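A reminder before we start the practical. When you read a complex entry, don't treat the lines as separate problems. The point of joint prediction is that each chain is placed relative to the others, so the output describes one connected object in space. Small molecules and nucleic acid strands, if listed, are placed in the same frame. In the example below there are three entries. Take a minute to note the order of the lines before looking further.
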Amino acid sequence: MSIGYACLTVGIPNTDLKSVTKKNATEERLKEVIQHNLNALENMIDYNSKQNIRLYRISSDLIPFGSSPVNTLNWGEIYGEDFRRIGKKIKNNDLRVSFHPGQYTVLNSPHSDVVERAIEDLRYHNKIMECMEIDFTHKIVVHIGGVYGNKEEAIKRFIQTFRKLDQPIKNRLIIENDDRLYTVEDVLGIAEACSIPVVFDNLHHTANHQGDPKTEAYWIKEVNNTWREMDGKQKVHYSQQASSKRIGAHTKTIYIGPFLDFYRTLPDTSIDIMLEVKDKNISTIKINNALSIDKNIARLEKEWARYKYAVLEKSPENYQAIRQLLKNKNEYPVIQFYQLIEEAMDTITFEGNAVNAAQHVWGYLNDGAIESEKRAFERNLTKYRNNEGKLRTVKNQLLKLAEKQAKDYLIQSLYFY
DNA sequence: TGACGTCAAGATCCG
DNA sequence: CGGATCTTGACGTCA
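Here is the predicted structure of the whole assembly.
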């Protein structure tokens, strides 16, 4: 089984993607941004390999206007070497990547121009994978599209359009249930007509199952039949409902308890699970640690180094509790560890705790700071205390100083994000 | 016409 | 002038 995340990393240097607006999309600017983004992608691939994160969704924004006439560059050739090098890393490290064009790529629209653009968009995504020379286990996930007042006709149009697609795209395309229009049952029917795999999304299913009483595990087993040898392992999307938010809104982090409850119901635990969550790689590492066969506490200590100041800011009590928890080096208390972190992060910030944590971090930077930086820190902190300034300002200054003083230990800290 | 989702660019404000 | 904060962009469908 592989656990993965989508598009962006949290807290990893040099992995940000740039974009260009239409009116500034000159060849020169596009070239700069594409080169920058490929570099960022390569850094993310390197990071994933190193962290043993084997599943990753590449952002559709990799090439700005990649499927639009606005971008006239022959980017496949210009950056051919970069693509092949990244592709090699993906293959050599046994990573599985995917794409997920958004809600604006609609194959079943009654408007032919919309469909044409959607097909161009699939060609764009497929072209990147071909440039990387990676096989058909690396997938492109789409939703079915709109209903337009007649679902039966809309489904027919999807199937007809699918039949016209280029063969390599047919080999990569997989389809997912959505949260409003197409249930997993609808998608299964379409998948059978097209002979392509289905991605089950648990939260979409919760939002859109029209009274269907069957369990998530049932549907995961059911859609497993759509995955053939050439498609690779079955893949599902997993996220959790944010309490007190709109149905379908997902949580900031994957809570370890509910995830393990879900995991235990799986008919086959060798499938790939894409986490759809705000904190991205953070949750992925959490789940990998929860499922790891290697139950060495060093894994948790490494995590603690990144979390500790963020926890200290929210809850000194949980900070102390985690320190106690990690004392016995023969244990692997992964669940309690993350639950204490989750509980702390869900606490509202108390000013005194935040000031304490900021001063704690400052303790590592004080000696290397010049007078004006010291004064700036005191000023920012006093302002925050008097409700005249934001905690964000204090943290941004601390991060800047950590970077200036090359305190890698601090730069990696989740305290800043 | 706004909401949906997403996140960086662009614009503007502040000291 | 730099940094912080806000608004816009880019896409299609639905209510």
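Discuss with your neighbour: Chain A is about 50% helix and 5% strand. What might explain this?
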